Every structure is written in structure tokens, then in C-alpha cells.
Amino acid sequence: MILSMNEKRALLKRQKEMEEYEDEMVRRYAKQQQDRADEIEAQKAEAEAIKEQIFKQLEAEEQRRRAEAEFQERLRNELYDQESEEAAQAKERAEAEKRVRVREEL
Predict the structure, then answer these.
(1) What are the tens digits of pLDDT across the range 18-76?
(2) 20 to 30 Å CA-CA from 86: which of 7, 18, 40, 71?
(3) Residues 91, 97: Cα–Cα separation, whole Å
(4) Cα(43)–Cα(37) distance, integer angstroms
(5) How far apart are CA 18 and CA 14, in angstroms?
(6) How far apart are alpha carbons 86 and 88 in whole angstroms?
(7) Residue 31 backbone zone (phi > 0: left; psi -120 to 50: alpha; other: beta)
(8) SS3 string of 15-82?
């Protein structure tokens, strides 16, 4: 009877140790899973930050190109207007000179 009580105590002690060991293993596993999830989340955040940085660079480059194209278009339009005005002035001068010659011939 004493032996069986000692065996029962040893068995209960062993059972309690096994439960504590299992609990510890479950905690370790949960911590590993959380660590993995945190690492994956950090990698995703880093990738998203890089993606956002690239997007901003592309956006800035596109705005720069658009501004440059608009500037060139304005210059082209100003040059066209200036050339048209100069052509009109030259035509007026030519007509005025022609009128002067016609008067002088009369």
C-alpha cells in the first residue's frame, strides 16, 4: 500500500511535470509563431515602404517631365507667335514700301 501511494505520488508528479513541459512547449511554439508573424509583417512593411518610395520617385520624375514638356510647349507657342508677329510686321513694311514706291512713281 505504501509503495502504491509512493508510486501514485511519483506518477502524479511525473504527470504534472509532463503537463508543465507541454505547456512550456505550447508557449514556445506560440512565441515562435508570433515571432515569425512579426518578422513577416516587418518584411511586408519594409517592402511597402520601398514600393512607396519608388512610387514617389516615379511620380516626381513624371511631374518633372510633364513640367518640362509644358515649358517646351510654351516656348514653342511663344516662338510661333513671335515669328507670326515678325512676319506680319515684315508684310506691313513691304506693303508700306510698295505704297511709297507707287506714290513716287506717280
Answers:
(1) 999 999 999 999 999 999 999 999 999 999 999 999 999 999 999 999 999 999 999 99
(2) 71
(3) 10
(4) 10
(5) 6
(6) 5
(7) alpha
(8) HHHHHHHHHHHHHHHHHHHHHHHHHHHHHHHHHHHHHHHHHHHHHHHHHHHHHHHHHHHHHHHHHHHH
Whole-angstrom distance, CA of residue 40 vs CA of residue 43: 5
Query: Side chain identity at 83, as an amino acid letter?
Result: E
Instruction: Report the run of H or E that residue 8 belongs to, with start and end.
Output: helix 2-105
- Output the CA torsion 43→47→53→59 (10° steps): -160
